[in-house]
Design a protein that fits this description.
Length: about 325
């Protein structure tokens, strides 16, 4: 087990204030007590990501079946998914606004060290970059290798005129935040920022991980947003959809599910690691008036294996309703 964090450290106290004391205390308690357990907190009762026996068994089955090489190559078969979303309350000046989303990078385990992602990003143009959590492979390990692997990706993403924003996932610790921010990722810890174009603005809000830590605070993240503002929300998993829609979110971007990662032909997931309906496990969806998108993930977890579920880099284009 990792040593107890120093909750009075100068690095952590400002983060507590940013995310809210109650959410911060909950996260810190769980980081120490339960992050390596199979059962426990969060919306699901079983957390496959912490089940080392699954990884060992899966790697063994792939090896003896001769599928290990294919499974591994599939993990670097990055697809750029172009997604257009029409929003009723998008300000005119944001019509055509482009957001690149990377999710579930698990960067320290990428089979190509991130070279394929970097190459794909260099061919894209976007106004804003968002990272929807799970930077690290393990749930409770040293995160320095992850940071080293993140550096070139963040450097590239900083070409976005409106910057690079991120949220924490269930594989990330709060202690990660100062280092990520020094790299150039502005983390949203139950916070929001305004993306401004002249006299128009979008609200970009982000919450802490709802899946395992349950440290999300939508009220805090969205609290000061005027009703008519077009609000985009970053949340690690698609497990707080109903709450977000009821609070007026226009577009909900998330990941965590990896789209199933190992799927049947046709892309049907064998296992789901999120407590939500099947229709929210990957791709574009709607919940009443709210639009949403669940990334299949850019990296992988548990083992280097993907079938019928390629990793993705998502390029969102926002369109204003009524514009042709
Ligand atoms: Fe996750």
């Amino acid at each position: 087990m990792l040593p107890l964090p120093d909750t009075t450290s100068a690095d952590l106290l400002p983060l507590f204030e940013r995310m809210g004391q109650e959410s911060a205390e909950r996260r810190m308690r769980l980081q120490v007590d339960h992050s390596a357990t199979l059962f426990g907190a969060g919306r699901g009762t079983l957390h496959f990501e912490n089940f080392h026996a699954v990884r060992i068994t899966l790697e063994y089955v792939l090896e003896v079946s001769g599928l290990a090489g294919r499974a591994r190559r599939n993990c670097a078969d990055y697809r750029v998914e172009q997604v257009e979303t029409t929003l009723a309350n998008l300000p005119q000046t944001f019509d055509g606004y482009r957001i690149v989303q990377l999710s579930d990078l698990h960067t320290d385990a990428l089979v190509d060290g991130g070279a394929g992602i970097l190459s794909a990003l260099k061919g894209l143009e976007y106004d804003l970059a968002v990272l929807t959590g799970d930077f690290r492979f393990a749930t409770n390990d040293d995160y320095q290798p992850c940071l080293s692997a993140m550096a070139p990706l963040v450097k590239q993403l900083q070409n976005a005129p409106d910057g690079c924003y991120g949220i924490l996932g269930n594989h990330d610790f709060l202690e990660f935040v100062p280092s990520l921010e020094r790299l150039g990722v502005r983390m949203l810890l139950n916070e929001q920022v305004a993306i401004v174009r002249g006299s128009d603005a979008l609200t970009l809000a982000g919450v802490d991980d709802p899946h395992f830590y349950g440290a999300h605070d939508l009220g805090r993240a969205l609290g000061t947003t005027p009703d008519q503002t077009c609000t985009l929300l970053l949340a690690h998993s698609p497990e707080i959809i109903a709450e977000a829609e009821s609070m007026g979110v226009a577009l909900y971007l998330c990941g965590h599910t990896h789209g199933g990662q190992i799927c049947l032909p046709g892309g049907f997931p064998i296992l789901a690691n999120a407590s939500c309906s099947y229709r929210y496990l990957k791709g574009a969806w709607r919940f009443n008036s709210m639009h949403g998108y669940t990334s299949r993930g850019t990296g992988f977890s548990t083992a280097a294996a993907r079938f019928f579920c390629p990793p993705e880099i998502t390029l969102h284009t926002l369109k204003r309703a009524g514009q042709s």
